[in-house]
Amino acid sequence: MATNAVGVYEGTHEHAAEERTTWWEYLTWSTDHKVIGIQYGVTAFLFFLFGGTLALLIRTELYNPAAGDFFEGATYNSLFTMHATVMIFLFIIPMGGAFANYIIPLQIGAADMAFPWLNAFAFWLIPPAGFILLLGYAVGPAEAGWTAYPPLSAISPDGQTLWIVAVHLLGLSSILGAVNFVVTIVNLRAPGMGYWQMPLLCWAILATALLQILATPFLAGGITMLLFERIAGTSFFQSGGGEGDVLLWQNVFWFYSHPAVYIMVLPAMGILSEVLSVFSRKPIFGYRAIAMSSFGIAFFGFLVWAHHMFSSLNPTLRIPFMVTSMIIAVPTGIKIFSWLGTIWAGKIRLQPAMLFGLGFLSMFVIGGISGVMLASVPVDVHMHDTYFVVAHLHFVLFGGSVFGIYAGLYFWWPKVTGRMMSAFWGRVHFAFTYVGFFLTFFPMHFLGASGMPRRVGWYAEEFTDLNRLATIGSMILGFSTLIFIVNAAYSLLLGRKAGNNPWQSLTLEWTVTSPPPKHNFLEQPIPAVDPYGYGTEEAYAYLRGERPQITLEGGAHRHADSLADEPAGD
Amino acid sequence: MSVAKRPEQNQTINYPLIVVAVIVWTVISVFVYLYGAEWFMPEAATVEADAVDNLFRFMLAIGTFIFLLVETCIFYFAVRYGFMRDKDDDTDGPPIHGNNTLEIVWTIIPAIIVFVLTIYSFQVLVDTTEAKDNEKEIKVTGQQFFWSFEYPDEQYVLKINHILVVPEDEAVKLSMNSLDVIHAFWVPAFRVKQDVMPGRTTNLRFTPNEHTGLPDPSVIDIYDPTLTVDQLDELDFGYDVVCAELCGALHGRMRGKAFVVTDEEYEQFLEGLREIEREKERQRQEALENLDALKALGRSLFATYGCNTCHQLTDANSLNMGQGPSLNGLEERAATYSGYESAEEYIRTSILNPNAFVVSGYSAGIMPQNFATRITPEDLDILVTYLAAPKDN
């Protein structure tokens, strides 16, 4: 292999191939980005199961219109509060961290992240944060919704204080992880990989990381004020009855939490770009447009926060936020149409990863359309805080993020574990997830529009049928997760060996063994000139193992030099 | 998967198929434009509702077209290029990297669509929220977990819980406040919603245009202060009033009814409210010497101040909501709590400072802490005497 390799790679280890990762490394402090990536992934998935269980409890209560079949009052409120908090802060955001940690250094040809110690530290903030959040069950869990609007959140039980502490830690983890991704992507790319040769996952993670660095401090500021409100008797939000402004929290909170939506969905979009191209056997359609639209979305993501406040904001101020919210549909549309262009006339392999990718595309577009409706102030005023919004956000965050996460899990599973997952059971899993998801969330559009507010354990009798449909759908969805778990467990124990590159993909992570050796690359990695050049002579040659000739210019030397903390090779 | 030769490039575009598809999508979208509001929206009872519904079905129709376009492409491509693919063909697809014309088209067209939608939405927003002449102003108060409405009157403070009555074809302005946390006032049939916040007065404007009338007094007595939301729910007319912003444990129960009436019925309703006030005045006079009159007034205050929202008290028609401790038999129990001189003192302390003594099984902080500022001393005396008085059940 690598006949034309230029011998500048300084990270070569003679015995690297023999060093295997032992199981206890996954349970202890490790600075290997692959170990940390798996730690992120497993932790996030466990919280996904917990959050999903809470969702099933919510749907079970909503099977009947009356409150108190199983849960009522504050207990019911704690269910959806914890469900959203766990899913957002302990599942989707860390899961993005899992993919970024494991895949990014491999994709850019680096031996590890730029700051391995910081990387481990960022991960190890998550388990204690999750523990502190769950400790709320001992003192009365948070029950003011994940949005925690004061004054309600200022007078909730002590679990709310623990919620604040947990979210603080998770925010810190998110910022530290993001700093690491930016530095790694900017500085550690292998020679021959300019910005425009980067895989689109890298672009997506770069945009996500910038959002995390810029937005998360506002969340930290907001919850610090909320903490003082609860324990020090301040009155920032007027919860003490003194001066202050109830809307201050909403402004600060959404200034983080709207960008957070993109923090949750951009990594999934990055995964989607990889998956659609590889399994369509076609170049990504409009590479630069997709890469740049992530930044367009990230930029406008900062200018739309008050569209969450259309029913509380001063009416005149609603107008500019309607305009910016509408504009954000344009870069999103560019992405969707570019993905359609990618699969058009491809030679599509309907592997589970591809099915979840297509599932993402087909469900996310519904969330996008309802998003434009919600951007319109007069329509939103009616829909705000109803099940229509619940439907919309799940089409974005489940139809988008979770489908994207599943696509990524199926796609990189062979690389991470060295074994294949059953494609048949993967397709069964997809079918149940797709049908269950649609049945659960599509009826909610009708429920919300016709008058059912969100966050209620009680509802009017006329909404019974659609709620039952949603509950049945959620059970199918819950069951589908079990199929995935069994399939994954079987693969780990008895799955067929994967080989280096089961999907014939062009990005660098597929040029090494599965799982990759301890320091990733045994020799200087040479990236393909076009990471999505499927169908070209160059791509066929690359997949045969021939490497392009690269010339080391100033820029390339800089990338190579930044690996200088590794032992010198030749 | 073996990698072999370069594939032949033959991606022809099937124009007749595209034309058929566009026609089908258009027909469906027009259909959605005509019926979309009926499928999604509840009955419409204000001028504003019609404007919002027209905007909604316009957006829904455009959304449907885009939805059909994208979904058809996905499913067609998946079947045509995936499912029906020659499984022995291991080659890659055609190396198409993009198409500038297409990319410009799918940037410009969505931009034009959202521009049109923004202008249209702006127009509807201005039309539906502007102040009108001769608005009827009604004060709305939100508190955990009920709405109360105050109607303008020269003589009395005409206040009633749960029931909003508005005159047909007249501009109405609601002026709203919250006594505790954030609530959101929403009448789905009116298509209007506004957060109700402590420390701020917010307004809501609408012009109702679908008459409902008032309930027949033989079916339900809306002037009975102890009337519950559940009793109101049994009516098959009237528009639901909903709290849309999470406000605590019984948020889902925070509902009421709105009735749209003629001017005559409106006057009649106000007169009914005035009669309640006169009745209360009489009860206040009698309460000083007559325990039955005091209890009648106590029952009414128990509802007016919203005690019945959380506390069970059968004598006052208040059901068990599982939120606060039951007050049935309180008069016997209260005397046994140590540290208090009398049952009255215990009850008075518990209203003004609910955390002073917390009944086991309930946590501190659930009950609003600000009754000291919300209740008049006279009403407090009556309420305490009523709660400490012996009751039949």
What would the keywords be for this entry?
heterodimer, A: Cytochrome C Oxidase, Chain A, 17 helices, disordered N terminus, B: alpha+beta, Helix Hairpins, Immunoglobulin-like, Cytochrome Bc1 Complex, Chain D, domain 2, five-stranded mixed sheet, about 40% helix
Number of strands of chain A: 0
Shape of chain B: elongated
**Fraction of residues in H or I helices of chain A:** 55-70%
Number of helical stretches of at least 4 residues of chain B: 10
CATH homologous superfamily identity of the largest domain in chain B: Cupredoxins -  blue copper proteins
Distance between the termini of chain A: 18 Å
> What structural category characterises the helix and strand content of chain A?
mainly alpha
Largest sheet report of chain A: none
Q: Which CATH first-tier class of chain A would you pick?
A: Mainly Alpha
Low-confidence stretches of chain B at least 5 residues in length (pLDDT < 50)?
Answer: 1-9
The largest sheet of chain B has its strands arranged as: 3-2-1-5-8
CATH architecture classification of chain A: Up-down Bundle
Task: State the order of secondary-structure elements of chain B, H for helix, E for strand.
Answer: HHHEEEEEEEEHEEHHHHHH
CATH homology-level superfamily of chain A? Cytochrome c oxidase-like, subunit I domain
- Look at the helices and sheets of chain B and give the structural class: alpha+beta
- Helix/strand order of chain A: HHHHHHHHHHHHHHHHH
**CATH-level-2 architecture of the largest domain in chain B:** Sandwich
Mean pLDDT of chain A: 91
Strand content of chain A: under 5%
Kindly provide the name of the CATH class of the largest domain in chain B: Mainly Beta
